[in-house]
Model the fold of this input.
Amino acid sequence: NAGVTQTPKFQVLKTGQSMTLQCAQDMNHNSMYWYRQDPGMGLRLIYYSASEGTTDKGEVPNGYNVSRLNKREFSLRLESAAPSQTSVYFCASSEAGINQPQHFGDGTRLSIL
Amino acid sequence: KNEVEQSPQNLTAQEGEFITINCSYSVGISALHWLQQHPGGGIVSLFMLSSGKKKHGRLIATINIQEKHSSLHITASHPRDSAVYICAVIRGGSRLTFGEGTQLTVNP
Done:
């Protein structure tokens, strides 16, 4: 059972480089999310997509863009990476509606030098 | 002050001990989520609850909506329970607000 799959698992970038983090889910979920996790802080929402074709900003959207390519896939793009974006990034998905549990991917560890 | 506070931040226990992790929140919520993050980094949902108590194996979660407090209990702890336990609240829809997590280490 794949669940939520994130690629890559690890990446090192130089300041100013761009990259896209990929996320795909096979649970037919409507809603998808991107979070970042930093030491000493809880997970913070970057962007989310309530359904295919819609995206909305979360708490910390600056420096990121997202694309909900189809119902399965939700990508996160860093256009010009900065050291402050060094973090572990998690993708999650859930059924639509209130109080639905979220299912998480294994994370992408991103370092920006 | 964070909207979701967990205590303790770090907890070390001996195998077999009863463990309690606390979560307090300062906002109105529709439900609360307990999650487990293993050393490898993956995050797994343990419970979602909006009232009362839920039990799964050796894990028990309780919530008191009036007091804005939830607890996660682990009975007969085992080294494989070592992980970060994260409390998250749902304020509307399915968006989560997370606590910082509690690092639990269970020694044999």
